[in-house]
Amino acid sequence: MSTSRRKFLQWMVAAGAGSTVVKSASAHEHFKGYPDSYGVLHDTTLCIGCRSCEKACNEVNDLPAPDKPFDDTSVLETKRRTDAKSYTVVNKYDVGEYAKGPVFRKFQCNHCLEPACASACFVGAFTKTPEGAVSYDASVCVGCRYCIIACPFDVPTYEYDEALTPRVMKCTLCEPRLKEGKLPGCVEACPMEALTFGKREDLITIARERIRKYPNRYIDHIYGEHEMGGTSWMYITGAPFEKLDMRTDLGVTPAPELTSGALSLVPMVIGVWPVLLGGLYVISKRKERMAHDEKTSAVKEAIDQTQADADAKLKAAMEKARKEKETAVEKAVTKALADAEKERGKEDK
Amino acid sequence: MTESIHTLQEFMLQTKGIIYILAIGYLIGFTCFWKFLHRRGNKEDVPAE
Amino acid sequence: MTTENTTAPVAIKRPLLTPFNVIAGIIILIGLPLTYLRFTGGLGAVSNLDNNNPWGFWIGFDLLTGVALAAGGYVTAAAVELFGKKEYHSAVRPAILTGFLGYSLVVFALLYDVGRPWRLPYPFFVSQGVTSIMFEVGACVALYLTVLFLEFSPAALEWLGAKKLRRVVVRLTIGLTILGVVLSTLHQSSLGAMYLIAPSKLHPLWYSPYLPIFFFVSSIAAGLSMVIFEGSLSYRNFSDIMDEDHRKNRNRVVLGFGKAASLVLAGYFAIKVFGVALGNHWHLLSTPYGLWFLVEMIGFILLPCFAYAIGVRDRNVKLIRWTALWTVLGIVLNRLNITLFTFNWQLPADQRYSPHWMEIGISVFVVTIGVVVFKFIVTHMPIFYEHPDYKEAH
C-alpha cells in the first residue's frame, strides 16, 4: 500500500514538473525484463508423473489436504487444472508416435515477464518482482476476477466458496523461500531433475544445449522464451506443444501491449471531446440566436410591410376622395354657372 | 535519481498514471479557459472596419 | 415496494394491490434470501462461476448490457443541450432518470459479483492500477454516476422545493452534459476494451482491436432505441401524468430518434464488416460460430436498420417502436455473445458456462428494484411534466 501511495505522489510531482523524479525510458524502448531474474525450466522428457512436486507444493504453501493422496496416480487419468487448493498439477498425455509411453507435464503459473494479470488488475495487486516471481497482494484485492479473464494460460484461481474474504490463488514461485535462500518446493522435491531452477538466461542456454545435443529427443522450441513476451517458467518437450494442451497460438505480444492502444486513446478523448462538443454547442447556440433574430426581423418586416400597405391604401383613398370632391365641386360650379346662365336667359326674355 | 525501467508494465504504470493526473488538470483548466474565453472584454460587439 | 403511493403529492392516487405491485413484491421477497446466501456462502453458493469462467451472467447482463442500455441519458442530453435539438426537450428528463437508475443498478449488481464489495473504492484511494482498462471503466462509471445524479437532481429539488440549490445545479447543465459525453465515450468503449487482453479466449469474429469503437457506436444505437422503447412503455403506464408538451412531442421524438438510430446502425454494421476484413476472418463465416455471427449482423443490426428507415420514411410510429425493441435485443445479444456465448469458445462443452437460476434470480431482483424506484420517482417528481413553479421558456 505504501509503495502505491509513494508511486501516486511521484506521478503527481512528475505531472506537475516533468522533473527527474520519474524513471526515464522512452515508448520505443524494447523492455527486456529484469536482468538476472530467476525462473524454472521444465523438461517433460524427464518427468515420470510421480506427483512429488504437487505434494511439496501443497506442504510449503499450507494448502488444504487433497481428496486423494498424492501417491495415488489414478488422478492422472483425468485432465486437471489448478484450483484454489492446488497451485500446481501434473497431467498425463498420450502423444502417439512422439514417445514410447505417456508424457507428463507440470502446470502452474508461468510467471510472465509482462504478466497479463498485472496489466489487468485495477488495484495493482500483481507485481513482477525483480527476482522473477509474479506476486499477488490479497490485502488490496477487490475480487473482480479480471486477472483470471486476462491470463492466457488459465492460471489464477479463486476461492468461490469464501463468503467475505475470497482470494485469488496461484503459484508464488515460492517467493518467501527464495528470500531464505531455498529452492521452490516443487523443484526441491523433484526426484528426476525434470525441473531446473536458475537465472532465466542460463536456463535458456541450458535448454538450447539440450536441444542441440539430442535433436531427436526434443522439439526445437523453448516454450516460454517468447510466448506472450516471454515467461520465467519455460518448457522443452519431445512432442508438439499442442499435444500437451499448451497453446501455440498465443503469439509473442506482451499482454500490456494489447490494451496500451486503447488506454492511449483515453487522454485524447478527454483532450479533444470538450473542444469538439463545446464548438458544436457554440454553433448550435449561434444558429438558435440567428434563427431567433431572423424570426424577429421577419416579424418586424411583416409589420412594416403591412404598415406601408396600409399607408399607401389610405393615401390612395384620400387621393380618390380629394379627386371626387374636386370633381364634385367642379360639377357643382359648372351646374351653378349653367343654372345662373339659364336664369339670366329667362330674365332676358 | 535515474532508476531504469525494465518492463513494459512498469513503463505503462508510470506513463498512464501521469496521464490521468494531467487529464484531470486539463478538464479543470478547460472549464476555466472556457469561462475566460466567453467573458466579454471591454469592447462591445464586432468592431467596424 | 408498497410504500410508493402513500405520500404522492400528485393528485392521482393509485391502488395498492395491483398485479405489478404483487409481482414486484414476490420477486423482491425471493431476492432477499438469495442475497443472504451470496454473502454467507460465497459466489459458489449461488452461481455457476468457476476458474475457467470467472465472469458470467452478472457481468454479461447486469454490467455490460446494463451500461449499454443506460446510454439514453448521454445521447438525449447531448442531442438537446449540445446539438440544439430543443424539440426533444421533453425526452431529456426520463432519459436522464433511466440513465441514473441504470448506472445505480449496475453498481448495485456489482456488489454481488465482486468478492469484497466494500473495497470498490480501493482502486481510487488505496492502490491505483492505472494500466488496467477496468481502472478506467471504474473511474468513469463512478464519475458519470455523479454527473447523472447532478443532472437528475433538478427534478428532485423541484419536488422538494429547494429553489436556490436548483438554480445552482441548472447553471451547470452544459458543463455536465459535455463531461457526461466524455465519460460515456470513455467507459462505453472501454467495456469493449476490457476484452482486448484476451485474444486467445474470445472468438476471432467477435474479438477485434476495434472492440472499443464497436461498443461505443452500438451504445449510441442502444441509447436511442431505449429512449423510444421506454417512451412507449411510459406512455402506456403514465400517460395520465404527462403534460401537454410531453404528449405533443412524443411522436416527434420517436421519428427523430428512429432516424438517428437507423443511421448509427448502418455505420455500426459497416465498421463490424471492416473488422472482419481487417482480421481476415472471412473463412470463419461458414463455421457454426460464423453463422451465429451472421445472425447477429443481419438479423439484429442490418434488418433493424432498414426497419427503422422504412418506419421513418412512412411515418410509421408503430414500426419504429417495435424496431426499437428489436435493436435493444440485438445489443443484448451482442453483449452476451462477447461475455458468454463465444468467450472460452475453445473449451470443451462440459467446461463452458451456463448461468445458475439463482444468478438470473438476483439479476431479475436487481432490475425489479430499478423498476419500482422508477415508478416511485415518476409518480412523485416532475419527470413527465414540468413543475408549475419552474415553467421556463425553452
What are the salient characteristics of this protein?
heterotrimer; A: 349 residues; mainly alpha; three-stranded mixed sheet; two-stranded antiparallel sheet; 8 helices; 9 strands; 10% strand; C: 394 residues; 14 helices; globular; disordered N terminus
Q: How many angstroms separate the termini of chain B?
A: 59 Å
Largest sheet of chain A: 3 strands, mixed
- Please tally the helical runs of chain B, counting DSSP H or I stretches of 4 or more residues: 1
Helical segment tally of chain A? 8
Helical percentage of chain A? 40-55%
Task: Decide which structural class fits the backbone of chain B.
Answer: mainly alpha
The total count of strands of chain A amounts to: 9
Biggest interface pair, counts:
A-C, 66 and 60 residues
Question: What is the alpha-carbon Rg of chain A in Å?
Answer: 46 Å
The arrangement of helices and strands of chain A along the chain is HEHEEHEEHEEHHEHEH
Strand content bin of chain B: under 5%
Q: Approximately how much helix is present in the residues of chain B? A: 55-70%
- Give a count of the beta strands of chain B, DSSP E runs of length 2 or more: 0
Distance between the termini of chain A: 143 Å
- The averaged pLDDT of chain B comes out at 84
Map the helices and strands.
The complex is a heterotrimer of chains A (349), B (49) and C (394).
Chain A: H1 2-17, E1 38-43, H2 52-60, E2 89-93, E3 103-107, H3 116-120, E4 126-128, E5 134-136, H4 146-150, E6 157-158, E7 168-169, H5 175-179, H6 185-189, E8 195-199, H7 200-213, E9 233-236, H8 255-348
Parallel strand pairs in A: 1-9
Antiparallel strand pairs in A: 1-8, 2-3, 4-5, 6-7
Chain B: H1 8-38
Chain C: H1 19-41, H2 43-46, H3 57-69, H4 72-82, H5 89-113, H6 122-125, H7 133-160, H8 163-171, H9 173-193, H10 211-238, H11 244-279, H12 288-313, H13 317-341, H14 357-380
Helix pairs in contact in C: 1-14, 3-5, 3-13, 4-5, 4-9, 4-10, 5-7, 5-14, 7-8, 7-9, 9-10, 10-11, 10-13, 11-12, 11-13, 12-13
Report on the architecture of this protein.
The complex is a heterotrimer of chains A (349), B (49) and C (394). In chain A, 44% of the residues lie in helices and 10% in strands. With 349 residues, chain A is mainly α. Chain A is rod-shaped and about 170 Å long. Chain B has one helix and no strands. The N and C termini of chain B lie far apart (59 Å). The model of chain B has no long low-confidence stretch (mean pLDDT 84). Chain C is mainly alpha-helical and 394 residues long. Chain C is 70% helix and 0% strand. Chain C contains 14 helices and no strands. In chain C, α5 packs antiparallel against α14 (357-380), α10 (211-238) packs antiparallel against α11 (244-279) and α12 packs antiparallel against α13. Chain C is globular. Chain C starts with 18 loop residues before the first helix and ends in a 14-residue tail after the last helix. Residues 1-11 of chain C have low confidence and may be disordered. At the A-C interface, α1, α3, α4, β6 and α8 of A face α1, α2, α4, α7 and α9 of C.
